[in-house]
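Section 3.1: Structural characterization of target chains.
Under the original work plan, the team committed to producing a structural model for every single-chain target entering the pipeline before any wet-lab resources were allocated. The record below documents one such target. The sequence was received from the expression subgroup and is listed exactly as submitted; it comprises 110 residues.
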Amino acid sequence: MEERKIISNRVEDALNSLDGIQKASPGPFFYTRVMARMEAEPQNLWESVTAFLTRPYVIASVISFILLLNATAIFRSDADESLSQQSDISMVDEYKIASTSFYDYSNSEP
């Protein structure tokens, strides 16, 4: 019996909480904004691509990627310079051919 009374009180409380409810009203200029959006032309491919690329996080990530590539290229080129100088010297030594002259000036006999 006591349990039914508790349930009944909860139902009454729930129904009484609905007494102050009013009809929802849209914000100012709601109809105008809805009509403007409905009449707007859909974006074409280039407009949507441009809208995506001009977002700040896209621009920031592209600039950071370019700076990272530049830093990598600079640090790798410093390390490669010493290796390239050594390889140039070894290549010159490897392909060094004793140049011989076909003209022997000391022996002038035919």
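The radius of gyration is 43 Å.
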